[in-house]
Design a protein that fits this description.
16 strands
Length: 290
Amino acid sequence: MKQRAGERRDRGSVALLMAVAAVALLGFAAVAIDVGYGLVTKAELQNVADAGSMSGNATLVKIYTELGNVDYTKYTLTSDDRSRISSKVNEYTRRNEAGGVAITVAPSDIVFGKWDSKGSFAPASTGVNAISVTARRDPTSNGAVSTLLAGALGVRTMSVRADAAAAGVSGLKVLPAGKGDIPVGIAKAWFTSKDSPCGQNSSIRFYPTGDLVGCAGWHVFTETPSSAAKLGSILGSLKNGTFSSPNTVADETYYNFTGGDGGEPVPGHAEPLQRQEGRGREVAGAHTGV
């Protein structure tokens, strides 16, 4: 039986449509499988970057601790310091895999820097308080990720990366307004010094505040004058909710401290607190100095 020309044309059209549909289906499968695999690899790279950043920051803190009573904000990391941190970063990143490959972080992907008051990270060589790590699978580091189905469409590899930057020194950079619950500062030496009288004490004392025998002191935030009367007013206002502590930025905001050896009753409080005998303006930081 002979087929009519119209039937042959219809059959050819159906075959063409099936071919086009097969390509489209392959494309959708490639998107579902390869893009999904890429996202899984990116999540693994994020874990790698986090591990590297945290290990690098832990080493940074250890370096500062070994320096003793040194102001880290004025310290410039040496080449040995940087090498030590980079080695520790890679020690931990190589323990993790992304897409089945142990990850090595290139020197250019380990950035030493600072977090600023706005929460932005910027490279720095002095006063470093954070380490940024980029973990990647691309042609430059660890090899790009091979695709499974997208290769049939001409896409044989894909590049994936993840970044992490953690603070290693300051646990809290900004204390928002209204979050300061009590006007108390603890001497930095209580945390860092092994030799001062304050560093040897197991308890925190609020007197005397003129030297390091006392490890803490009362302050009036940024208010003036720094006096027992002002302190009493702030304590009372904090209690009844009519006082809001100021926005505080580490290494930028200064508190006015009260102190002394004798002590006088603070208005509105039965127990005496220390009376101001010498005004001090101390910067609020990770550990507030008195």
